[in-house]
Amino acid sequence: MDFAMNTDQTANHPNRESKNFKQFSGDYLKKIGVGFLSLLNGMGLTMSYLLDPRKVVTQQYPENRDTLQMMARFRGGVVMVHDDDNNHRCTGCTLCERACPNGSISVLNTKNMAGKKILGQYIYRLSQCTFCNLCIEACPFGAISMGKDFELASYDRQQLTLILNKKKGDGS
């Protein structure tokens, strides 16, 4: 009886193969057609840029260094926002330091004369930063943001460790 069941299954097997082959070949031809249309779409866009160069969004760096505008979502190094009086909004809460996945930020707090905790130094290690933006999202005061600088290379590694809460013009 087991033998009879096996012969019935093999009898239906070639029919299934031909049906699967027809379905496979139809899907294959459909994918070729979609790929060809996608190729024509891309080539059409390339030709439109070739015929009308004003549409091109590529910026000619470094020739346009003076007029270069970075995109709104560009992530440069972390900068501390200072107002016109050169004051910042950082309270030293260390939420950004805890949010940083690799320890690029160190917030060293001190106490003022009244015994209140204030920000002593905000140390940012650009060489370790992954530009993930987690510290910016964690800051409840908007004290730090991602800068627009992109020429950040240096031969000296010590130049990549920055103290962000320095006063402008302060040499320390």
What report would you give on this structure?
The chain is α+β, with helices and mostly antiparallel strands and 172 residues long. The protein folds into two domains: 2-55; 78-163, Alpha-Beta Plaits, CATH 3.30.70.3270. Helix content is 35%, strand content 15%. It contains three helices and five strands. It has helices spanning 2-51, 95-99, 134-138; strands at residues 78-80, 105-111, 117-125, 144-146, 161-163. The strands form two sheets. It has a three-stranded antiparallel sheet with strand order 2-3-5, with no helix packed on it. A two-stranded antiparallel ribbon has the order 1-4. A hairpin with a 5-residue loop joins strand 2 (105-111) and strand 3. The longest helix is centred in the first third of the chain and has 50 residues, at 2-51. The model has no long low-confidence stretch (mean pLDDT 86).
Largest sheet: 3 strands, antiparallel
- What's the rounded overall pLDDT mean? 86
Poorly predicted segments: none
* Biggest sheet, spatial arrangement of strands: 2-3-5
- What structural category arises from helix and sheet content? alpha+beta
Helix proportion range: 25-40%
Shape: elongated
Number of helices: 3
In the CATH hierarchy, the architecture of the largest domain is 2-Layer Sandwich
Instruction: Spell the H/E element sequence.
Output: HEHEEHEE
Domain tally: 2
Short structural description:
This protein has 3 helices and 5 strands, in the order H-E-H-E-E-H-E-E.
